[in-house]
């Protein structure tokens, strides 16, 4: 829990922050990480291994489900430069090399214009259960964090990373 003397900005897992930010209240939904502050019976995000249902409950997922590392990198370059330097193909190849993961596990899901914003996912590979898959992706996320920090993800000539975010979650379906 992150609170000052009067307000809270974040709650521990299993709690929801009230709309006035005065306190963290325990969620009533089992296996819930974060619940709706106005309705503690409605989950907003579930523990790993559970999917969020339309009614705000958390349902157990099969051990064979995939886990994904979802990331966003924003580069200070134009779309013309991005495409001229190999676009998605170059990004996947360079990312695969930098993180030592199979290129087939990386999917570029969106590229936005302006400063180039690349949204991509790395799907779990190996591991026989969710815990092993999550642990493997945590290690890849650590590598990605380090590669962003030390310039290893500056895969386009003259383009610097302006911002970066990354998180691990269950994928919605198993291919």
What's the layout of helices and strands?
Elements: E1 2-3, E2 8-10, E3 15-17, E4 24-26, E5 32-36, E6 39-46, E7 50-52, E8 58-60, E9 67-75, H1 79-84, H2 87-99, E10 106-112, E11 117-123, H3 130-150, E12 161-170
Antiparallel strand pairs: 1-2, 3-4, 5-6, 7-8, 9-11, 9-12, 10-11
Give the structure's gist in a few sentences.
The protein is an alpha+beta fold and 175 residues long. It contains 3 helices and 12 strands.
Describe this structure in words.
This protein is α+β, with helices and mostly antiparallel strands. The protein has helices spanning 79-84, 87-99, 130-150, and strands at residues 2-3, 8-10, 15-17, 24-26, 32-36, 39-46, 50-52, 58-60, 67-75, 106-112, 117-123, 161-170. The protein folds into two domains: 2-60, Ribbon (Hormone Receptor, Insulin-like Growth Factor Receptor 1, Chain A domain 2), CATH 2.10.220; 67-170, Alpha-Beta Plaits, CATH 3.30.70. The protein contains three helices and twelve strands, in the order βββββββββααββαβ. It has a four-stranded antiparallel beta sheet, with helices on one face. Strands 1-2 form a two-stranded antiparallel ribbon. A two-stranded antiparallel ribbon has the order 3-4. A hairpin with a 4-residue loop joins β1 (2-3) and β2. The model has no long low-confidence stretch (mean pLDDT 83).
